[in-house]
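[step 3/7] fold_predict: job queued, chain A
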Amino acid sequence: IRGNINAVAKQFLPAANARVFFLVLNTTSQVGLAKRSLSVAAQMNASNLILTHLDEADCLGSWYPILRHAQLPTSYLGIGRQIPEDLVIAHPRRLARELQCGPQFC
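[step 4/7] structure written:
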């Protein structure tokens, strides 16, 4: 089924004629799932990342290698359950603090 979903997505994405394709990653997910999501998104030419559930994640330190390998800009951070109210711009300093110590200190 996964292969079929990828094929369907690849078929419809060009029709959307989108300039930006955001990959949304839940930071409470397992690292392996995030890596697989990035792999699929790379095949679909993802251009930016949105990291969600920062308010529920203990620490994002384990995400640093994933984000570095992805080589995609992180555009927004989800810091709560209300969308779009709890999406904030991912300023570099804020993202660095999140990666170092987790949301409870930011």
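[step 5/7] annotate
Helices lie at 2-16, 31-43, 64-70, 92-101.
The mean pLDDT is 81.
exit 0
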